[in-house]
Amino acid sequence: MAKAKSVVLGVTGSIAAYKACEVIRLLKKESCEVTVLLTPEGEKFITPLTLQTLSSNKVVTGMFEVPEDWDPAHVALADKADLVLIAPATAHIIGKIASGLCDDIVSCVVCATKAPVLIAPAMNANMYMNKAVQENITKLKRAGYKFAGPVRGMLACGYEGIGCLAAPSDIVKEAKRLLKR
Question: Are 8 and 37 in contact (CB under 8 A)?
Fold first, then answer.
């Protein structure tokens, strides 16, 4: 990609949050500027310091952080994004987005952006196959949201099934495709 693209990466509360590190590394390798948004649940799995070190940008963890310059964070980030990527995306964040709820920095940025949104789900197979979750995914796809994965594999709960985060390389490949549009 010739011009540096701005990717806003939302990291939510999944054990797969550690894979966001590889997603960041691969996006940076593609000359993308990466700004990370971390939900409170995501902070239980990975630290802002790790994500800041890898992205070379301040990690936004809350909607009410005092900005260095006056600018409502969710609007400024939404406007700045060439792509909003949520990896990993939990059933919770998918449901909030599908319902239009905006009570954390990730859901607010998604609601405020005009950029493409790519969602990479990661959750237990039973959660992923739950009728409500599937209806939320279908609703978002109809609204133009894009999805990468999930894939079948060994889940954190010890079961094998659908729900594993797609490979970071596959997520970034789809992100690149969307950025070229």
Answer: yes
